[in-house]
Amino acid sequence: MNHLTIFSHGEKDLPYITGNVQHVELYARVVICPTGKPWLDELAAATEQFAALLVSAERNDTDLTSPVQACPGWDLRELAVHLGRTHRWAVGILEGADPRQRPQIEPDEQELLSEWYASEAETLRKALAFAGPDAPCWTLVEDQRTALFWQRRQVHETIVHLWDAHHAKGQSLQIDPVLAFDGVAEIRDVMYPRMLKADRVAPLQRSLVFTATDLDTEPVVIGDAKQTAAVQGPAAELLLLVWHRIPWSPAYGDPEAAELIAQSLVP
């Protein structure tokens, strides 16, 4: 099994990964996300929280069968398997696999779900570290064809499903507002353009202007229509709103915006 050791190189500490057969030095640049932390650190934090939640749920078997409201028909166990499969899918893409082939992996009968998920998450983090952010690979959109895309995408995938898992257990989750608002920006950059290209949605008749009331930052605008519809609220609520995790409230803004969001900007 590979292990990670840090060796000093110039002014920065860069990872030197040793394996059973070969030694590979990584001089890939570290990309900082809007929170001020490296994307891979944010991914580690989110996946470790998800694994810890599964450990807690395993202490009470009924917790693993708690329904996930945002994913009809799924319980907490199925959510964890989905997320683990999504991590493995990204690993395969980094290694050149056909993205149309989704891995149908799941824990062995005698394997704890938490241990299985933690292993898949670790495999993802190592694969991203090996690749570095600039490695060319397939992605969901044509203008972002490097592994950095998957650093960001897997963070937001995990954060939303971490919220799902907490919600299934009747718990709340505080999402960093800066990270949450980048999740809204990712919908602008990735999800909505992808939905348009696949003809899954019609172009927005009004551009949606999202303003995070708990951040001093520029709004995120989704769509290119001249007419606009305003949406405002705490950044985490905006993220959950667009991903259909929480219901619309008049406090969020224009009624026209509610109708446009309901048409779905995300898969």
UniProtKB/TrEMBL annotation:
Gene Ontology CC terms, in alphabetical order: plasma membrane
Region forming the signal peptide: none
Taxonomy, superkingdom: Bacteria
Domain Mycothiol-dependent maleylpyruvate isomerase metal-binding: 43-165
Organism placement in taxonomy: Bacteria, Bacillati, Actinomycetota, Actinomycetes, Micrococcales
Record-given protein name: Maleylpyruvate isomerase family mycothiol-dependent enzyme
Keywords annotated in UniProt: Isomerase, Pyruvate
Domain MDMPI C-terminal: 179-255
Xref: PANTHER family: CONSERVED PROTEIN
Pfam families xrefs: MDMPI_C, MDMPI_N
GO MF term set: isomerase activity; metal ion binding
